[in-house]
Amino acid sequence: GVVETNWPDEARSFADADPLTDKIGQNVADFLAADMKRGIIPSTFLPLQSGVGNIANAVLGALGRDKTIPAFEMYTEVIQNSVIGLIREGRIKFGSACSLTVTNDCLEGIYNDMDFFRDKLVLRPSEISNNPEVVRRLGVISINTAIEVDLYGNVNSTHIGGTKMMNGIGGSGDFTRNAYISIFTCPSVAKEGKISAIVPMVSHHDHTEHDVNIVITEQGVADLRGKGPKERAQAIIENCAHPDYKQLLWDYCKLAGDKAQTPHAIQAALGMHAELGKSGDMKNTNWAEYVK
Predict the structure, then answer these.
(1) Taking the model in full, what pTM does it have?
(2) Annotation marks residue 148 as catalytic
C-alpha cells in the first residue's frame, strides 16, 4: 500500500573530514592528475563513481580543489553532500545516481533551488545506474572504500574480521569490475594502530585482485596494473602499509617463501586476525608460532 504523509525525509550525515581522510583524498587527486598528465586519462577527464562516507567526501573534496583536474561528471549509485557542493561550485558538471544520501539541510537546499539543479541531477533505476555495459562504455573511474586489502590486491569491503557485517556491498562490485580504473581507499590502520588494513589474506572476499587496479591509503599509492603477485605485494607493503606493520608483512612474505606463483603460508595467512582476537593488537603477531 501507499500512505500519503507529510513526514519529512530522514537523511544521514557523516563525520567531518580530518587530516587523515584529507591526506587520502589528496593522494587520490594527485594520482588521477598524474594519470591524466601521462595521457592514460583524457584531458577532458572521465566520469567518477564514488562510495559514501567520510573518506569518499574527503576524496571528492580534494578532487574539487585540484584545479589541474577539469570539471567532471559523476556517474554513480549514491550522491552525497560533497557532490552537491561541487555542483554548486561548478566543479561537477552533472550528477547521475539512483539515490541521494545527504544531510537534511543539504536536501532542503536542493528542494529550495530546484531550478538550478533540474539540469544537473538525474536519478535513475539501479538497473541503469549500475548497468555493467554502461559503466564500461562510459569509462567510469570507480573509487570505493575498503575495510582491508591483502598483499595481492584482494579487497574486503563489508565484514569486520570476516564475520561481523559492517555494511552491504552495495554497487561497488558492479562498478569495480567494469570500471576503466578501479580504486580502493582506506586508512592504513584502525583502532589506534591495533588493526592493520593491509593483511596477508583478507578475512572476507568481496573484490578479487583481477578487478582492483589501485590501492590508496594515507601512506601512499600502490598501482597494481600490469604487476604480478609478488610485485603487487611489494607495491602494497611499501606504499600503503603503516610503518608499524611493514616489517611484520615482509616477515610474512619470507614465511610464505617465493616458490609459488602467489606465495602464501596458509597456516599463517590469517594469523594477524587471530592475534587481534587473542591479544587485541595485530602488532603482537609472532610468525614463529606458525613454523613447524
Answers:
(1) 0.94
(2) no
